[in-house]
Design brief:
The chain has 18 helices and 13 strands. It has two domains: 222 residues, Periplasmic binding protein-like II (D-Maltodextrin-Binding Protein, domain 2, 3-Layer(aba) Sandwich), CATH 3.40.190; 154 residues, D-Maltodextrin-Binding Protein, domain 2 (3-Layer(aba) Sandwich). It is 41% helix and 17% strand. Strand 5 and strand 6 form a beta hairpin. The chain starts with a helix and ends with a helix. Helix 2 runs antiparallel to helix 3, helix 10 packs parallel to helix 18 and helix 11 crosses helix 12.
């Protein structure tokens, strides 16, 4: 009997709690996440991350490193994620998070996450130095976040209907009223709008990723007006809904994630990803080690998973399936050594594509700007408008 099977003999395993949480039965999950519950097996890791980090059945490959990975989509909205890690049951259920950069300091200060020990990650020396230097990753000299994937976002659009799109202005074009969408998360939509207003409309905005009170008011009033005018078909939430909007051809353009373009192309749609004149929104999705994982004796297993993520298979897989890049030299090397699994040329092409984005104009995403609580208030006003 393996560790997972042994653990599942408990009255309510952590894996069952994951299923219950996914089904919305939060109350039972919360009541079961109390001291004294059965501990997880040494290699069983519950990964709570942005949906595009998921590799489905290919998580089985982590068994080569003695790991059994259960992945759950966290929805990508930092507010609820941080709240559940700090004051909810997430620390009792999940071991690591994959979260957009910016919340590391808050989570570390609240004691929800603990530092990584990069000495336990053999492949750390293969991680690109500029990715290691992303400012959100360290807090008071401690390695709180690990750069899992990096990319830069822009606009998904129907090339067969719109031709070539090169500006965020397409999202606010009255000719496309009701045929455009943005994500229901200020971490992306507010910065996209700020970038457009700054670069195309000469709005008095200094740093789109860290707006002052006045700048934020300007951006949000602009969005609220367009929403009330019926400009947006919807504000989408999560990977599945984003894909569905494109797959069902409900929109002609939307701000969003590059993997949605790849999924649309796989389904035979003529969709493309814009290279906007206003620039890209750069971001890193980072690995966070939960306090609860260490308390359950899973700290070493979590480090093994981080090392496996940097070993090449995961990076080559995401490059092929999502268009994302794990910032490691091992991705191309793995594909070249295993051409039966991955064609090295597309992996290399994706790596070069992402690197080229960062050679141009990029404004960095920030999930916790200086006045993030005001962002939350404004975003709720938008939802209610």
């Amino acid at each position: 009997m393996n560790r997972l099977q042994s653990h599942l003999r408990g009255t309510l395993s952590r894996r069952q709690m994951l299923k219950l949480t996914a089904s919305g039965i939060a109350g039972l999950a919360a009541s079961s996440a109390m001291p004294g519950r059965a501990m997880a097996g040494g290699g069983d890791i519950a990964f709570w991350g942005t949906g595009t980090l998921d590799i489905g059945n290919d998580w089985q490959r982590a068994e080569d490193a003695g790991l059994n990975v259960a992945f759950t989509d966290n929805g990508n909205d930092p507010g609820p994620i941080v709240a559940r890690l700090v004051a909810g049951n997430a620390n009792a259920i999940y071991d690591i998070s994959g979260l957009q950069g910016g919340a590391e300091k808050e989570l570390a200060t609240q004691g929800a996450v603990v530092p990584w020990d990069t000495r336990k990650i053999a492949n750390w020396d293969k991680v690109w130095q500029w990715a290691k230097d992303i400012p959100y990753l360290t807090v008071d000299g401690n390695q709180i976040g690990l750069p899992c994937v990096v990319n830069a976002d822009s606009i998904i659009y129907r090339k067969d209907k719109l031709g070539v799109v090169d500006s965020y202005g397409v999202i606010f074009d009255p000719k496309l009223k009701g045929r455009v969408a943005m994500e229901d998360a200020w971490i992306n939509s507010a910065i996209f709008t700020a970038m457009y207003l700054k670069e195309a409309e000469n709005a008095p905005i200094v740093e789109p990723g860290n707006l002052t009170d006045d700048e934020l008011g300007l951006v949000m009033e602009f969005l609220i007006k367009h929403k009330r005018d019926g400009q947006f078909r919807t504000f989408w939430n999560g990977w599945e809904q984003g894909v569905q909007l494109v797959a069902d051809e409900e929109v002609d353009a939307m701000t969003g994630w590059e993997p949605i373009v790849l999924e649309g192309q796989k389904r035979g749609l003529d969709v493309a990803y814009a290279a906007p004149v206003e620039g890209y929104e750069g971001w890193g999705n980072n690995l966070l080690l939960h306090r609860g994982a260490v308390e359950r004796g899973l700290g070493d297993a979590a480090h093994e998973l981080a090392n496996w993520i940097y070993s090449g298979f995961y990076g080559a897989n995401l490059s092929q399936s999502r268009g994302y890049v794990v910032p490691s030299d091992n991705n191309i090397a793995y594909a070249e050594a295993n051409p039966g699994e991955f064609d090295p040329e597309p992996v290399r092409k994706t790596v070069d594509h992402v690197r080229n984005k960062f050679s141009g104009k990029v404004y960095w995403q920030n999930t916790r700007p200086d006045n993030f609580q005001l962002y939350e208030e404004w975003w709720q006003k938008l939802r209610n408008s």
